[in-house]
Amino acid sequence: MVYLRSLLFFIWMVLTTLSFAIFFIVAGRFIRYEKLCSIAAVWSRINLKSLKLLCGLDYQLNNWTAWPPQTYIYLSKHQSAWETIAFRSLLPHTQIWVLKKELMSVPFFGNALKRFRVIAIDRSSGRRAVKQIVEQGTAELDAGHCVIIFPEGTRVAPGERKRYGVGSALLAAKSGYPVIPIAHNAGVFWGRRGLKKYPGVIQLVMGEPIATKGRKADAILKDVENWIEEQQEKLPQSRD
Question: Which domain holds residue 223?
């Protein structure tokens, strides 16, 4: 039954994503960016509600501040595709994502992404990618947009961790904008690979803003990593 429900959701998500992607490709250039982001949030809410209806998978927000007026850099754990869907509606809508350049080549999806002001980096380019994050990220933050980054750079299975990249911390240190860390256990119910989505409640925790002005990048990164990993240990790591 889990497999069948997951398959139905997958088909539905493909259809909704394709429909919205076509809309963004065709009409995106004629719509102001803030409105475009609000429409993307509708896509997010549709799929979150469908996920609950079809797969019995819901979420719970803990210490979640409702769209604070100040501009922030959001740094989150990355365990599955779930958070890439959910954050579109759970975080301030006018978002700038740091993502891998390869996604821009995906048919329809990549073309739709080009309508959004994403920071598409070549992860193999090292310092050049970091420089791109800092320069483009600062410009977007100054424009009043929030920036979303997965500091580990890839999806990580529950209970595991990878090295936190310095790019996000350098952006915070050089721009002076505060960081909000996010922990969650989406990977327990929605794995990195495979079709199955298991019923349950994903727990998300938002940390208090971490000040960055006048601080070094390594100190900021240490604070972020310590907070996220400590919270991850407190979250349920199984579906029982």
Answer: 2-234
